[in-house]
Batch of 3 targets.
Target 1
Amino acid sequence: MRYTVLIEKNEDDGYTVTVTSLPGCISEGDTWDDAIANITEAIEGYLDVLDELHKPIPVEITVQTHKEITA
């Protein structure tokens, strides 16, 4: 499955990642790659809990990323 994520650079030069269609599914990472790996793990855990609780799994087909570029 694919989910839209919002990736923001935080004040500590790391990244905060939020999954827009999974309320409360948020993670962080010191690098872009760490942030992506961590949110992937968070999404898997989130979906596992929904499955265990017999809750519907949200379906989304678009993934968007945002990278702030300064000149």
Note: Helices lie at 32-52.
Target 2
Amino acid sequence: MINYLKSEQYRLVRKNTLHITSLVCLLLIGAAATVLYYSQKADPNFPYVTTRFFYSNVIGSGGLIIIVSFLYNFSLTGKDTALLKNAVSFGISRNTIFWSKLLLTLSYFLLICVFGIGLMIGLGETLMTSDSQSVKDFLTALVNMLPIVFSAFFLIHSLKMLKVGEVYIFILMLLIFVFSGDLLRILFRPFTSLHEVYKYAPDTLLHENLLNFMNHTVQFGYQHWITGVLLSLITLLIGVTKFAKQPID
């Protein structure tokens, strides 16, 4: 497995899309901070040059983060079936292929996330009005987002490894991470005992997390971890099982 990891890492770091995506993400963070800073210079009464508003752009951008995670995962799960066939023919197990690609893409995704968070905090605390709790609340809100973002990453990885088309992946991600709360609320409306189920939907939890952050009331939410861990386990179990049986053309 170590040799396969090294070969996949070699391929990954030479992917232009990986570096372009990383650079664009960091530039967007810098651009957002710059726009807010100079908006205050132009208008001293501009009310949004605060760390809390700046950080809320990340807390409220779960969908954008999931899109970025798709681009990172795609760098090793794109149209390289010929390479998969070669790996299998050389005796590399499908489990090794599945988990190696996941481990590498997730590691690089987390690396750019950590770097981006550090950049945001550095810019926010340097250029903007800060309250004493904003960084702590920001990190708490990020911890709440983490399992849901992970579950989205694992779902994307599993679907890509199973050669599901990008359009179908996009539709499924919308259903689960954007509309699931409303769908569950409608679906279970006739059942009194299930009225609260929608509160555990990913989009409901992400929206609540944002509201709590803006209202200075954010705290660790076990519901986020219940939903995220369950989705992750189901996704990975189905993904690795089906990939082990899937023919590689």
Note: Residues 2-245 form one domain.
Target 3
Amino acid sequence: MTETLLANSKVPVGELPALLFPALVDTLIMVGIVMAIVVLVGVPLGAVVHNLAPGGLFENPGLHTVLSWIISVGRSLPFLILMASIMPFTRFITGTNIGIAAAVVPMSLAGIAFFTRIVENSLRSVPPSAVQVARASGGSSLQIIRTVQLNEAVPSIIGGLTINVIAMIEYSAIAGTIGAGGIGYVAVTYGYQRFDQGVMLATIVILVITVAVIQLIGDALVRFTTPHRRLAHAV
């Protein structure tokens, strides 16, 4: 009897596009909102953490250690545990523990911790001589960060941003467990709970294609920016 009900509840192949396309749009919206927050916070925070380190523009080893430890904690927690542990905070911010709004909070926190470290590591690759020249020219700390450090690290930051976007797509699938919508929610509700292998396979294919396209775009942007940065540095 149960097997019959489950078989009857499976989504017909012809109805898959109507089910999956809106879910994909929800996923892209969710990830887009999160990545906007991640970039707006992660870039300046990464620059600050980098320059608080010994040898930085405004070095402060004590504060650098504290911020670095906080970032490491944020990166080390598995996303599902992070999402569950901050539910009271999420509810305080959004007024709910379900839906896209509730997923954006933990995804943003996880993404910021990840991207901040990427930016910090990218800035370490900037030649110290370039910073020294900018300092000798009388550039302010803000000018040096913006025109020298971040400018030189653009290809590396873009590469890291690509990885971060892909990670957020994976997190959005996990967020489907709290009814956040998107491909993850469809996979859990239809593919897992209803044992609909057709839906599960379709969601896997969509996620693989989406990640592949994002990786291709990211790689193309890295290739596009690297020669220009190298040429500008050589001149």
Note: Residues 27 and 182 are 4 Å apart (CA to CA).
